[in-house]
Amino acid sequence: MNEMRVRLEAREPRSGEIRAFWFSLPVNEDELEEKLGIDSADGYFIVDKELPFADEVMEDTSIQKLNEMAYQYEALPADIREDYGELMCYFTSLDELFRLKNDIIHYADCRNMTAVAEKVLSQNPAYASLPESVVRYFDFEAYGQYLDDNGRFVETDHGIYELP
Fold first, then answer.
1. Neighbours of 150 (CB within 10 A)
2. Which of 13, 110, 116, 117 is the most buried (most CB within 10 A)?
């Protein structure tokens, strides 16, 4: 999704006309007041939205909250934004995902848990110090299954994520 935007409509008609316009996020409050012809921050409601986090936006969500959500979404790493829809099955809100974004590990080049096991162990100094004669007998598939059974992993088209 390229542009995040919402369609806002004035609660009260102006000159007998209902005024509604699309606004890109973050919404400039001065522009909102000018286009809709309203004086107060609660003189509008949201009638349509094109947002990755649309499920969290209600018709009475404030402009401040919309702008905060847009900031949080844009501050997510690009890979998490790319898989946002799939990851949100494991989080209660954009706010929670935003708070935990640094605790999520993305194994972008891994397509299964065996590959994740190999990646995890390749970064482990204790494993790296084992002689090759021992390493060749290591069962990465079993270790991958162990990781899967004892962690929270999500497979996507762009790799595997380990969730906190």
1. 7
2. 116
DSSP, collapsed to helix, strand or coil, labels residue 118 as helix
Side chain identity at residue 114, one-letter code:
T
**3-state SS assignment for residue 50:** strand
Sorted by where each starts, the structural domains of the chain and their CATH numbers stand as 5-75 (3.10.20.480), 77-164 (1.10.10.1190)
Residue with tokens 């973050």: 26
Query: Rounded to an integer, what distance in angstroms lies between the CA atom of residue 42 and that of residue 147?
Result: 49
Q: Are strands 152-156 and 44-50 parallel, antiparallel or unpaired?
A: unpaired
What would the pLDDT profile of 83-129 be if each residue is shown by its tens digit? 999 999 999 999 999 999 999 999 999 999 999 999 999 999 999 99
The dihedral through the CA atoms of 86, 91, 97, 101 has a sign that is: negative
pLDDT surpassing 80 at residue 40 = no
Question: How much is the pTM?
Answer: 0.87
